[in-house]
Specification:
The complex is a heterodimer. Chain A has two domains: about 180 residues, Rossmann fold (3-Layer(aba) Sandwich); about 120 residues, Nucleic acid-binding proteins (OB fold (Dihydrolipoamide Acetyltransferase, E2P), Beta Barrel). Chain A is of the alpha+beta class. Helices cover about 25% and strands about 35% of the residues of chain A. Chain A has nine helices and 20 strands. Chain B is mainly α. Helices cover about 80% and strands about 0% of the residues of chain B. Chain B is globular. Chain B folds into two domains: about 40 residues, no CATH class; about 180 residues, MetI-like (MetI-like fold), CATH 1.10.3720. Classes of the chains: A alpha+beta, B mainly alpha. Chains A and B meet through strand 6, helix 3 and helix 5 of A and helix 7, helix 8 and helix 11 of B.
C-alpha cells in the first residue's frame, strides 16, 4: 500500500507504527455476550470483545451507538442485563466501581471543584489508605508527568481547558490502574490542542504500558491513536481491526463510509473466477474488473467500493477504456491545500469523489470545473462488499 | 463617562419608592433614641430605652426562646430538607414521586393559619392518645417550624443538586470511595453553600414567624414576635423601637458581611483565572 496516496490526515496513522512497547496479545478485558437494556431500549446488544494488555483500543461510533454504555459497564456504573465482563481474569460483572482495578477519565473531567489540583490527584490514593509520604511522592510524579508541577495548589476553576484535561488524566492514572477508560478525552479541546494532545496521549500510553480504552465519535482521532478500533452501530460491534485494516479492508458499507469516505456502486457479479471477477454496475459505463475472486455467486448483488484517493482523474482516455473506467464532468472542486477533492458527475447521474494530491505548484489546476474527464482505477483497489 | 439622561419623573418615583420602603424603618430607629415615653412626640436624645430593654426579663426570655427555636429548627430543617432534595433529584422516577414532590412543596403555598391550626389539632390529639408531647412549648414550636421551613431547604438543595455534574460522585467512586464516602467527601462540600443559605433561610423564617408559633406555643414559651405583637396591642413602648433597631442592625451587619465575602471570593477567582490564562499563554 502506498502511504503517500492517502489524504494528509490519514498519514498521521504512522504514529501508532512507531510504538515502543508492542502490544502483548494477552487479554486484559474479556467482554462475553454483554447486553444492556434500558426499559425497551437495547443500548448494547450481545457484544463480545477481547482487549489485549498494553493496547490502545478505541470504541468508535455515532451518538447513541452504545459505546459510552459499554465503557460505563467496564467502569462499573452500569450492570449488564446479560453476559459477563472479565478484567485481568476476574469476573467483574457485579463488582462495584470502587473495587475495580480500572479508572476512568470523564468527558466533563469531573474534577472536584473544592479541592486543589494536588488534592484531586491524591483523592484515589487516599481512598486506598496509602501512606502520606508515598501519596506526596506519587502526586509530584503525576504532576511532573503531565507537566503541571507549578500548578499543584490551584483549584480547577483557575485552570485552562487543556490544563484541566491533564489534571483529569493525572488523577485517573495516579492509582496505576490496569486499564484506563477515557470517555471522549479530547472532545472539549480546540483543534490545535487536540492534535497535540493526541500525540501526548499515545506517547504516555507507550511509556506506561497501561491498557487504554478510548470512546470517541471522531474517526480521525480513532485512526490516529489506536492499535485497534471497534466500530459500533445500534448497540452492536460491526468490525474490530487495526486502523489500517479497517480502512483498506472494510467489511460492510457502513464501516467503509464511517471510517473515511468511499464511493460504493451497487452491481451484480457477471463473472467469478479463481483469479479474477467481473462486476457489472448500472451506474458505471464499463464493467468493474477485480483481480481476486469475490464472495457470492454469479448474479448476486454486491457493491464495488472505491476510496477517493485510489481513483485517477484524466482528460485523456486511460490505456484500457474497456474496464474500470467511467466518464463524467467535474461538478465541484474542494481545494484543501495539500490535496483536492473533485466531485465528478458520471454520465449515469451518480456523483463520485476523487481525491488528488496537489503535487506541483501551478497557477491553474490541470483539471477544472465543467471539464469532461475520465475516472479510472486499478483492479486491486476495488473493495467488494456484500452488505 | 456616558451621561444617562435621568428624567425628573424617574428620580421622583425612585425617591418615593425608597421613602415608602425605608422611611418607616428610619422613623422607628430615630424614635428608639427618644427621651419621651410617647412614641410620637420627640423629647430629646436618649439611650435609656436600650438600658430598659436589657432589663426586661420578659423580652430577654422571649428572645432566648426565639433564638433557640430558630437554631434547632434551622438545623433539623436543613438535615431533613437535604434528604428530601436528594430523594427528589437522585431517586429518578419512583412510584409516588409526584405526590412526594407535591407534599414537600405544599407548605410553601399553604396559608399559615391552616398549617398552624392543623398542627395544633395534631398535637392535642397526640397528647390524648400517647401522652406526647405533654403540653405545648419549645418542642411543639420547633416541630411546627421544621415542617414548614423544611420545604424551603428542600427546594434550595434540589435546585443546587440539579445543576451538579452527576459524574462528580461517579468519579469519586471510580477512584475508590464507597457511595456514602463519595457523598460526604465530594457532593456535600460542593452543595455546602446551598445548605448554608437553606439554614439561614430556615433560621430567619422561624425567628420571624408569629402565626404558627401562636398556635403551637404554650404558656411558658412566648417567642419574640409574640411578645412584640402583644405589647404593641397594649400600646407601643419605645423599648420595642429599641429592640427593632437592634434587629435591623443585626440583619444589616449580616447582609453587608455576606456581600463583602462574596465580592472578595469573586475578585480572588477572577484574578486567579486571569493569572492562569496569562501563564498558559506564556507556556505556548
Amino acid at each position: 500500500m502506498s502511504e503517500s496516496s492517502l489524504p494528509a490526515a490519514h498519514q498521521q496513522r504512522s504514529l501508532q507504527q512507531k510504538r515502543i512497547v508492542p502490544p502483548n496479545p494477552e487479554p486484559v478485558i474479556v467482554i462475553d455476550g454483554v447486553t444492556k437494556r434500558f426499559g425497551d431500549f437495547t443500548a448494547v446488544d450481545d457484544v463480545s470483545l477481547t482487549i489485549d494488555r498494553g493496547e490502545l483500543f478505541s470504541l468508535l461510533g455515532g451518538s447513541g451507538c452504545g459505546k459510552t454504555t459499554l465503557l460505563r459497564m467496564l467502569a462499573g456504573f452500569e450492570t449488564p442485563t446479560k453476559g459477563r465482563i472479565l478484567i485481568d481474569g476476574q469476573d467483574m460483572t457485579d463488582v462495584p466501581p470502587y473495587a475495580r482495578p480500572v479508572n476512568m477519565m470523564f468527558q466533563s473531567y469531573a474534577l472536584f471543584p473544592h479541592m486543589t489540583v494536588e488534592q484531586n490527584i491524591a483523592f484515589g490514593l487516599k481512598q486506598d489508605g496509602m501512606a502520606r509520604d508515598a501519596i506526596r511522592a506519587r502526586v509530584a510524579e503525576m504532576l511532573d508527568m503531565v507537566e503541571l508541577s507549578a500548578l499543584g495548589p490551584r483549584k480547577p476553576h483557575q485552570l485552562s481547558g487543556g490544563q484541566r484535561q491533564r489534571v483529569a488524566l493525572a488523577r485517573a492514572l495516579a492509582k496505576r490502574p490496569k486499564v484506563l477508560l477515557l470517555d471522549e478525552p479530547l472532545g472539549a479541546l480546540d483543534k490545535k490542542l487536540r492534535e497535540r494532545t493526541q500525540l501526548e496521549l499515545v506517547n504516555l500510553q507507550c511509556q506506561l504500558g497501561i491498557t487504554f480504552v478510548v470512546v470517541t465519535h471522531d474517526q480521525e482521532e480513532a485512526m490516529t491513536m489506536s492499535d485497534r478500533v471497534a466500530i459500533m452501530n445500534q448497540g452492536r460491534i460491526l468490525q474490530v481491526d487495526s486502523p489500517h485494516a479497517m480502512y483498506e479492508f472494510p467489511g460492510t458499507r457502513f464501516v467503509a463510509e464511517f471510517f473515511g469516505s468511499i464511493n460504493a456502486f451497487e452491481g451484480t457479479i457477471a463473472e467469478d473466477g479463481l483469479t479474477h471477477a467481473v462486476i457489472s454496475c448500472p451506474d458505471l459505463d464499463a464493467p468493474v474488473y477485480v483481480n481476486h475472486s469475490v464472495p457470492g455467486y454469479e448474479g448476486s448483488t454486491v457493491w464495488a467500493a472505491l476510496r477517493p484517493e485510489k481513483i485517477t482523474l484524466s482528460k485523456q482516455p486511460p490505456a484500457d477504456p474497456a474496464r474500470n473506467v467511467a466518464r463524467g464532468v467535474v461538478e465541484d472542486i474542494v481545494y484543501l491545500g495539500g490535496d483536492s477533492t473533485y466531485l465528478v458527475r458520471l454520465e449515469s447521474g451518480r456523483r463520485i469523489r476523487v481525491a488528488l494530491q496537489n503535487l506541483t505548484r501551478a497557477a491553474e489546476p490541470e483539471v477544472t470545473w465543467d471539464d469532461a474527464v475520465w475516472v479510472s482505477w486499478r483492479p486491486e483497489n476495488v473493495v467488494v462488499l456484500t452488505s | 463617562m456616558k451621561s444617562v439622561s435621568r428624567s425628573p419623573f424617574l428620580i421622583t418615583m425612585l425617591a418615593f419608592g425608597f421613602a415608602f420602603l425605608y422611611l418607616p424603618i428610619l422613623l422607628l430607629i430615630l424614635y428608639s433614641f427618644n427621651e419621651s415615653r410617647l412614641v410620637t412626640v420627640w423629647g430629646g436624645f436618649s439611650v435609656k430605652w436600650y438600658a430598659e430593654l436589657f432589663q426586661d426579663a420578659q423580652i430577654l426570655g422571649a428572645a432566648k426562646i426565639s433564638l433557640t427555636v430558630a437554631a434547632i429548627t434551622a438545623t433539623l430543617a436543613t438535615a431533613l430538607g437535604t434528604l428530601a432534595g436528594l430523594v427528589l433529584v437522585r431517586f429518578g422516577r419512583f412510584r409516588g414521586r409526584t405526590l412526594f414532590s407535591g407534599m414537600i412543596t405544599a407548605p410553601l403555598v399553604m396559608p399559615e393559619v391552616v398549617t398552624g391550626l392543623s398542627i395544633l389539632l395534631l398535637f392535642v390529639a397526640l397528647e390524648q392518645l400517647i401522652g406526647w408531647p405533654a403540653g405545648r412549648g419549645v418542642t411543639t414550636i420547633t416541630i411546627a417550624h421544621v415542617t414548614f421551613t423544611m420545604a424551603y431547604v428542600a427546594i434550595i438543595v434540589q435546585s443546587r443538586l440539579t445543576q451538579l455534574d452527576g459524574s462528580m460522585e461517579e468519579a469519586a467512586m471510580d477512584l475508590g470511595a464507597r457511595p456514602a464516602k463519595a457523598f460526604l467527601l465530594v457532593t456535600l462540600p460542593i452543595i455546602a453553600p446551598a445548605l448554608v443559605s437553606g439554614w439561614l433561610l430556615a433560621f430567619t423564617l422561624s425567628l420571624d414567624d408569629l402565626v404558627i408559633a401562636s398556635f403551637a406555643a404554650g404558656p411558658d414559651s412566648t417567642t419574640l414576635p409574640m411578645v412584640v405583637f402583644s405589647s404593641v396591642r397594649l400600646g407601643v413602648s419605645p423599648k420595642i423601637n429599641a429592640l427593632a433597631t437592634l434587629l435591623v442592625l443585626g440583619a444589616t451587619i449580616i447582609i453587608i458581611g455576606a456581600a463583602w465575602f462574596m465580592h472578595r471570593q469573586d475578585r480572588d477567582r477572577d484574578r486567579a483565572v486571569a493569572r492562569a490564562m496569562a501563564e498558559q499563554k506564556d507556556r505556548e
